[in-house]
Every structure is written in structure tokens, then in C-alpha cells.
Design goal:
Protein name: DUF3159 domain-containing protein
Region (Disordered): 233-258
Keywords: Membrane, Transmembrane, Transmembrane helix
Number of strands: 0
Pfam family, one: DUF3159
Transmembrane segments: 36-53, 59-78, 85-102, 114-142, 163-183, 189-212
Length: 258
Amino acid sequence: MTSLDKPTEDAGQPQHHDARAVTEAALFEAFGGVRGMVETVLPGLLFVAIFTVEKDLHLSAIAALALSLILVVVRLAMKDTVKHAFSGVFGVAFGVVFAMFTGNAKDFYLPGMLYTLGLALAYIITTLAGVPLIGLILGPVFKENLSWRTRNPGRKKAYAKASWAWGLILLAKCAILFPLYWWADTTQLGWVLVALKIPPFLLAVWLTWVFLAKAPAPIDVFAEMEAAEQAEKAEKERKAALAAEGGDATGGRHRREA
């Protein structure tokens, strides 16, 4: 490496780190970060822990639902975003209603398992259709909306890879859980489900980060729209100024002729 090559490499390094930092921040915002993961695990963990000891469906279900509501209240009190906590409340509520209706404690987990299966299929189907779901989720976070579909093919390819990763990982998770739903008891299913809550998620997020960190930078369509509005405003001001100058010149000529 020559002395001329090294500065070029060092100059490009901060941009590379900046792109990775932006990707990490966007993923944390989209998927809730560490706190969001904890909030998705705690209600199910409490349910299976109480049911393992007490074998009481009603007590376990009410405790899990109460905890999910407390998590929302805490976020509201801290004036933090509640979308991840609210999704947890709805998921727990569906599980509680379903389990209470059937009287089978294992059915507390069934709505979440069906949601996971549906989400896995959504990732795969949207990718096959050319609109990978992870791009629809992260596009607004990166301020690129759908520009990656037609204007940034490298980024579209990265979103497709990430969506395949999410779909296949979630399908693998379903391949473990659904047989257990039929063959295992409530406590066995519950503890396996808790154990599989975070690791597959972390793997999918890490792969998404790897693919996007190597992809072209997102096109900030919001900045483009703002720049276009400013250019349009400047053009109107320029025309108004020219019109005013033209009016002044005409008035001056009329006064001279008079």
C-alpha cells in the first residue's frame, strides 16, 4: 500500500461505520431493542412458571395479562413508545381468551404460534412477489419508503435476502413448536416456547444487519421532497422578483415618456 492509498481508505472508514450505526439504530427502532424483546418474553414466562407450580389456567392467564398491561402502563408513564408493549398485550389477550374458551392451557400459546406461521409465510410470499416484507417494514424507518423497489436494486436484493432469512427461521421455529403442541404437555411446550423466543429473533435481526450493512445506502426520499419544495419555493421567489423588477422598469419608462 502506498502513502497515497492509505488516506483514501481511512477517509472511507467513517462512512462505513456511519452506515452500520444507522442500520443498527433502525433495527433497534423497528424491532424494539432489548427492552422490546424482554417485554415479549415476560408474560409467557410468567404464565408457564405459574402453571408449572399451580396447574391453574385462570391464575396463570390473568397473571400474564396483568403483567402485559403493567408493561404498557410503565411505558406510558415514561412517555415511551408503546407499540411493542401494545402488541404484547393483544397477543397475550388472544391467548387468554382462546385458552379460557377451550379450557386447554396449551391453547394460550396457539394464537402466537399461528401468528408466527402466518408471518413466516408473509415474509416468503412477499419476497417471491418482489416486495419483501422486511423492506416494507424498514423502508419508512430508513426514510426511503419504497424507493428501494425501483431506484436501489442492491438494497432490494438485501431486503430479499433478509426476508428469506426471517421466513425460513420462523418456519424452522414452527416446525419445532407445532409437533410439541400435539405431543407435549403445557409446561413442556411453554418452556420450549420461552427458550425459542429470543434466539431465533436475534439470529434474524443479525442476518438482516449483515445484509443491510453491505447494501447500498438508502435513498432519503424525505430529504429529496424537502429539497424539491425548497427549489420550487426559490423558483417562485425568483420569478416574483423578476416580475417586480419588470414592473419597476415599465413604470420608470412611462414616467420618462410623460
